[in-house]
Amino acid sequence: MFSAIARVFRTPDLRRKLLFTLGIIAIYRIGVYIPAPGVNYGNVQMCLEASNTTGGLYQFVNLFSGGALLQVSVFAMGIMPYITASIIVQLLRVVIPRFEELHKEGQSGQAILTQYTRYLTIALGLLQATTLVSLARSGTLFPGCQFPVVPDESLIVILLMIITLTAGTGLIMWMGEMITESGVGNGMSILIFISIASGFPTSMGTIANTQGWGTFVGVIIIGLAIVALVVFVEQSQRRIPVQYAKRMVGRRTVGGTSTYIPIKVNMAGVIPVIFASSMLALPSMLTQFNVRADGTMPEWAIWLQSNFSGSSPLYMIVYTLLIIAFTYFYVAITFNPTEVADNMKKYGGFIPGIRAGRPTAEYLEYVLSRITLPGAIYLAFVALIPLIAFVLINADHNFPFGGTSILIMVGVGLETVKQINAQMQQRNYEGLLR
User: Fold this and answer.
1) What confidence category does residue 54 fall into, taking pLDDT thresholds of 50, 70 and 90?
2) Taking the CB of residue 81, how many other CB atoms lie within 10 A of it?
3) d(CA 24, CA 14)
4) Which of 64, 120, 198, 338 is the most exposed place for a label (fewest CB within 10 A)?
5) Helix (H) or strand (E) holding 259
């Protein structure tokens, strides 16, 4: 392994890309701890110690920002506006025919969709920055904290905070694109990976200090087993054989080759978990906005708070059902069996034993519906691990080995290693992985 890493750094071009990526990551992590203008950094730290926010509504966004949200730093919005914008643009392909046409146009169409995603990212960043500043001013961001996060509430300071936070979102988006162009791996995915990984030492230290070293070792063993399970499932796929008939093009015979259509067990990735988590954050948001001046809440808000917390059985059941439903929904809009069947028929391809055209599309729909169910159950199981850990060992909701964190980290890690390995094999017979 060490010899493989040494070979990577002995390759000048690859070494330059890796160092460039590490440099962008360093800048990103430094920005996490630079407070936004108008924010009292000392009061923020005291509020973090005195408040129970780390187990509340904002932890999900804080996870993707690498802790920058609750630091109220210049990078407080993190990568979430870009993730949301990308998902919205992808979903709009189903609703707006023009977006689907751009998707089919190839590189030129993708460039236009990317530009739309950038504009939407800035708009969402502006909206979320305004919301964050309002929460910080009102004290809702840190419930129970008596220290003012924004001491100066003048209009100039508030506008400067909103503009700075929005600019931070744009800078993060630019850094991610720079990694994609000049570094190694997908830039946005790498930044998300770093944001999540930065919370691992704190989470594991909390478990060791509060639960003891026996529990700590047990969590490590269970974590390794979960990582092995995630790697196994993420690499699993159903290969549907495809045969291309021979045909004459001029004086040449083309076709006659055999290939396959890879259908992954988890085709939806981590998107259904993000959708489900976002939907179940709404009840908590409703309860927080319905707290009376004397600190009491209506009966319906109390019921929501008690039944839609992470440790309640009802929350886990609804969470599981939402993940399964969103998995089927997302797979249905990202994989079109009819389009795949038409493309195969156009180029003379067919599945052995299945007629080309509509029978092929029906067969692909059949296979897809059967393989999506175990993928959805797997996603629900991994997503419930932090909630189960919260009940068993009183861990926080940012339990390191489960949910969106482990799915994203393993997926990004596997993809990045594949890209490094491919670049190594272009220059040497041996890649990063033997």
Assistant:
1) very low
2) 24
3) 16
4) 338
5) strand 258-264
> For the stretch 132-160, what's the b/e string if a residue is b when 16 or more beta carbons lie within 10 angstroms of its beta carbon?
bbebbbebebbeebebebbeeeeeebbee
Res. 433: pLDDT tops 60: no
* 137, 153 contact by CB (below 8 A): yes
Residues 27, 162, single domain; the answer is yes
Q: Same domain for 229 and 185? A: no
Q: Both 215 and 145 in a single domain? A: no
The pLDDT, as a whole number, for residue 394 is 63
CB 351 within 8 A of CB 360: yes
Does 428 reside within a domain? no
Query: Mean pLDDT, the chain, as a whole number?
Result: 81
DSSP labels, 37-81 = TT--HHHHHHHHHH--GGGSTTHHHHHHTTTHHHHTBTTTTTTHH
Per DSSP, 193 falls in state H
Residue 42, in any domain of the structure: yes
DSSP secondary structure letters along 290-316: T--TTS---HHHHHHHHHSSTTSHHHH
Token pair for 228: 């092995």
Q: How many C-beta atoms surround the C-beta of residue 268 within 10 A?
A: 24
- Whole-model pTM? 0.80
3-class DSSP assignment, residue 399: coil
Could you tell me if 222 and 304 lie in one domain? yes
pLDDT higher at 22 or 204: 22
| Structure token digits, residue 102 | 């751009």
Q: pLDDT of 289-322, one tens digit each?
A: 666 656 677 777 777 777 776 667 888 888 899 9
- Smallest Cα–Cα separation from 103: which of 264, 347, 111, 149? 111
Looking at the structure, do residues 190 and 286 belong to the same domain, yes or no? no
Measured CA to CA, the distance from residue 156 to residue 151 in angstroms comes to: 13
Per-residue burial over 302-315, b if 16 or more Cβ lie within 10 Å, else e, is eebbeebbbeeeeb
Domain that holds residue 218: 204-401
87, 257, 105, 86: which is closest to 176 by C-alpha?
86
Task: Identify the pLDDT of residue 292.
Answer: 63
Which residue type is seen at 337?
P
